[in-house]
Amino acid sequence: MATVVIGIVTPIVVMLLAQSMKGFTAYEATMQLRKTNQVSLNRIYLRLGSCKRIFQNSSTDNVFLSRADLSGAPAELTGSVLPTIQATGSLAVGTTDFTPADVGNCLFFANNDSMPTLLSGTSTVKVDVYRFNFYYLTTANPKPIQAAETYKLVEWQSIQFADYDQVMAVPTLNNRQKNMIKALYAMGIQYSFDSNQMDATQAFWQFDASGGISSSGMGSFTIPMSRYKLLTNIITGIIIGGYNYGVSSNSSLWTKPACPKTIPLYGVASGKFPGGFEVAIAGSSSGRSVLMRSVLVAQGTMQGVVADDMQNVTMARDVW
């Protein structure tokens, strides 16, 4: 009798445990996706809070983006496009003021990184220091899911650049300007950016250790990388089970199961563009509204695919 009871009860217990494991894994994955999405978007939000200039999908701004050295970072998703700023438009989807074709899937801007106080002769001066930031999708995802191609969101950041106008505003009398440049150089800040120049071939200047500044050879200057970070990294299997994850691809690229979210929601799909990271920008230069949407998905020992769809709108200045 005992053997018969055990034979009946054991499969039931195993089935219940298996269902519980799937439930725990689904819950863990959902919470981790939500946390990762929130941390990533908040990180961009904070950078935009000190924004000085946002680059858009235009012939002049695309040249600046092409100067960003991505050679040591993951490759950008094919077909990636910066958003086009809707200066007189809005983010009210479905109205004539919103243009889906202006939505991009990456973000490139310069923000105020610091303001060091420098000794220049007998006086002290403050100089704004900037970094270029580039957020984009890559197919280099070590944790792909089986249902569809998924991506990673990359944060690329440049080295520091001093404000050219502020540098040139320091008087040359008594070597004040030269001493300030020498101090910047000693801090590791070896380049300056002229924010008034819309031509990338004339926007960058180089310092030297003796306090000189020159644009010689800077016409084809490539913006060096300081670091990059994969923002959508998750520690999996904390509770039980396991799963893979990533930024979702477009809904149309999914087979079975179907994509749990509609992608794109704002832009116009074209091949892999935009994927699960959409960016729209509207408003005047004194206060741009930047809409970001990120969709993360996960698949593993749990049943089906879980997803997190998070959006936020950030106000950012675009005035130097």
In short, what is this structure?
The protein has one domain (about 25-315).
Question: What is the subunit arrangement here?
Answer: single chain
Q: Total number of helical segments?
A: 4
Q: Which consecutive residue ranges, at least 5 long each, have pLDDT under 50?
A: 12-23
Portion in helices: 10-25%
Structural class: alpha+beta
How would you portray this structure in words?
- The protein has 320 residues and is an alpha+beta fold.
- The protein has one domain.
- The chain has four helices and 15 strands.
- Strands 1, 2, 5, 6, 7, 8, 9, 10 and 11 form a nine-stranded mixed β-sheet that branches. Strands 12, 13, 14 and 15 form a four-stranded antiparallel β-sheet that branches. Strands 3-4 form a two-stranded antiparallel sheet.
- The longest helix is centred in the N-terminal third of the chain and has 47 residues.
- The chain starts with a helix and ends with a strand.
Question: How are the SSEs ordered, and which strands pair?
Answer:
Layout lengths: L1 H47 L2 E5 L3 H8 L40 E8 L2 E4 L2 E4 L2 E10 L13 E7 L2 E3 H6 L6 H11 L4 E3 L10 E4 L5 E2 L10 E6 L12 E5 L29 E6 L5 E13 L4 E12 L4
Parallel strand pairs: 7-8
Antiparallel strand pairs: 1-2, 2-5, 3-4, 5-6, 5-7, 6-11, 8-9, 9-10, 12-14, 13-14, 14-15
